[in-house]
Amino acid sequence: MKLARDFYDRDTETVARELLGMHLVRRGTGAERRGRIVEVEAYVGAHDLASHSSKGVTARTRVMYGPPGHAYVYLIYGIHHCLNVVTEPEGHGAAVLLRALEPLSGIAGNTRGPGLLCRAMGIDRSFDGLDLSGDLLFIEDPGGRDAPEIVAAPRIGVDYAGEWAQRPLRFYLRDNAWVSRRDRSNRGRG
């Protein structure tokens, strides 16, 4: 079952945790591509110094401030696309970065890391602002899942964000082989 808009219109950290185990589905390129979400990062709003929204509304961040349940796709280092899902009410500027997928079908290539995930799923800037309730790109609940064991850890690559860099806002499925990087600290349970 495709996730409804109200799933995304909630607290970003809650949405991030609950996205784990859901399926990201990409259609429209021949064979359907499907992967299980195993790692995410929460960017909780303009007050979060690691978030793009901390700089306010710009051409790049406009989608983050829009309605929940849309894709926010940006380019980093001029070569890697990253897929986020917009969360919380319009005007808040929050999103969840999808960091890693466990390939299920139609995926050729590594999906350990946000840039590799987008490459394997065929996601680029043309998806920025896409409504995730459509048929091209969406997230669905496969149903019948056991409650996953979730690890909470600091986000990756946000050292510039001061105290926000160490907040445990990265979540992943414990012992999943497709996670991009495991936390080496003892804080590991979430």
TrEMBL record:
Keywords: DNA damage, DNA repair, Hydrolase. It is an enzyme of class 3 (hydrolase). Its EC number is 3.2.2.-. It holds the Pfam family Pur_DNA_glyco. It comes from the Bacteria. The keyword Cytoplasm does not apply. Belongs to the DNA glycosylase MPG family. This is Putative 3-methyladenine DNA glycosylase. It comes from Noviherbaspirillum aridicola. The lineage of its organism: Bacteria, Pseudomonadati, Pseudomonadota, Betaproteobacteria, Burkholderiales.
